[in-house]
Amino acid sequence: MGKVRIINGVHYRRRITDEVFDLIKPIQSGKNGSFITVKPNKPFSHGQKTMRIRVLPSDIVLLAEKKTHKPTKVKVKLETDEEATQRIVERFDILEEMTNATIATDIRAMIVSGPPGVGKSYGVEKQLSKASMFDVLASIGPKYEVVKGAMTPIGLYAIMYKHAGEGNVLVFDDCDMVLQDDLSLNLLKAALDSGKKRRVFWNADSNLLRREGIPDSFDFEGAIIFITNLKFNHVRSKKLQNHLEALQSRCHYLDLTLDTMRDKLLRVKQIASTGNLFSGYSKIDEKAGAEIVEFMETHKDTLREMSLRMALKIADLRSISEDRWELLAKNTCMKNSF
Length: 338
Known about the structure:
The protein is of the alpha/beta class. About 35% of the residues lie in helices and about 20% in strands. The strands form 3 sheets. It has a 5-stranded antiparallel sheet, with no helix packed on it. A 5-stranded parallel sheet has the order 7-8-11-6-12, with helices on one face. Strands 9-10 form a two-stranded antiparallel sheet. β7, α3 (about 155-160) and β8 (about 170-175) form a beta-alpha-beta unit. α1 packs parallel to α2, α4 runs parallel beside α6 and α9 (about 310-320) crosses α10. It is elongated, with a radius of gyration of 35 Å.
């Protein structure tokens, strides 16, 4: 029935002043005067479930009962497989479009983030190869270079100098060391600054630079593409976060949005449906390719990874043995060997 505030009242010989109780029954009249029935609070409770308090009507205040609102259930529209596949296709189309814009010097830097083995590098390198064909025919030589693996700050400085000219594109493919080193990040920030002139300095003596004839400063007019598995917003180090945010502000950032097992599987299915995934295997026809994709879907939770790379690994095993490839895959491609 709500709550009641008793300004003055008496329970047997105990005076009650300004106390709030759960109301059981409203005020009533008896031979000893008016009283109200409430649920005892701890200080007054001696095992009884109710207590009567003698009061005057003017000494009680009925408190409004708080209404509890049930949380509104928001219906979330789930993305269908077709919609998710379309989203993924659009992202990779954007990747190719942005790569072409980098080649054309319309943009100076791009960061591509996504899980390993989904075709990030392929999409970038395909566009770079197309663009460089004209340079090869003209005997100019390729204007891009893909850097993988470890990279020291002085090595970064040297390779940026080599590709400092306008029209050059430098690609760092899973070369996350340059994104996690203070000095390397400062060099990159200088090379990708938003000003008209982007001058990069090496303010320390170096035998390597002298030997290679590299000056201690130069203007960088090329473009840079970072291909990484790193999610910038998931980095825990506050210091590194600040550096990455400064770098991200200088670059176009493309997240391929392949964050779930379902998305990665849909990417495998999408590439398989184009006929390009197993095109390099003479023994993998359309039926065999479908069997590989079905195997990956069935065992998606125990495969070491869900990726195009994994599909090709299983295709290797399918080419080795048409009869035993599933057994081979279960023993070499899954987390728990059988």
